[in-house]
Amino acid sequence: MRKCYRMTPVLLLLAAITCAATGCGSKNENTGAVAGQTGVPAATAGPTQEPTPKPTPEKTKTFKTDKFTLEIPLSWTDQFQTKELGGDGNGKAAYLDFYANKCHEETGMGLLFSIGTYTDESYKQLSSYVVVGKTEEVSYVAVFPVKLQTVGASEGAKQQYDHMFGTIEKVANSLELRKKK
Hints:
Elements lengths: L1 H21 L37 E5 L3 E6 L6 E7 L7 E7 H7 L3 E8 L10 E6 L4 E5 L11 H11 L2 H6 L2 E2 L4
Antiparallel strand pairs: 1-2, 2-8, 3-4, 4-5, 5-7, 6-7
């Protein structure tokens, strides 16, 4: 127990040295001066850090249906497939499902998102959705999967899915309704 008390001053000294060396507690934030130097202009204080470049937006291509368009990243080329489901004409929602190819081929899963068309507000009962377009008669709703879609898939299929899943909200929000001719 005595050893603990002997170490306390050493630890405090180390903390003070570390704090002094790194400038913690300093009120001058990002002045460009090196610790211990005062009055040195930032340009002469040492190497400067370059600003982080903004990522360039990924190029896209337009995916068209009779009712709407979406902007799909070029990295998705030949890596997804779509399936239409439902829509009996009596108010039942119709869906256009987007799947990552590898997961879907390997497991039958791999759903990235769906665009559902609703003539009522029943979509409000869904767990994960965003209304991405609306007309007087129809709401276009992006519906996102709530359960894991890569169970049983190979590592390559999971990587493909994860890459695509990272941009699904941006893709879904790019929906533009097509004008009637």
